[in-house]
Amino acid sequence: MSKGDTFENDLLKLIFNAAAIANIADNAATSPLTNLYVSLHTADPGEAGNQTTSETTYTGYSRVAVARASGGWAITANSVSPVATINFPACTGGTATITFVGIGTASSGAGKLLYSGAVSPNISVSSGVTPAITTASTITED
Prior knowledge:
The chain is mainly β and 142 residues long.
């Protein structure tokens, strides 16, 4: 079974821009999530994983908050991209090879992983490197 194209786009707008889907869903009225948290992973966190699954641990790393709004995420033709480059904290120690990015609900801990995908090319992190996810990165709902 598949979703209709219009609904796929609406679903992305609900998740990433907090935009209601008329007669189906709205953003929580009392305490809606205002940010999504982007995480970096050294392996595929998988569908059963959470935000900590294979999450990188280089010194200085933390997840980056991106607003659930049109100022944070651009949605076009069932595809979502960050509006601005997402810069992670610079590595101050250790090394890592970033192969996946995740988008979830928590600033730290085992938050709900909403989407994850491969990073290409991989990002080699060592002292002084500031990993970034560019506006050319996309998530497609299909």
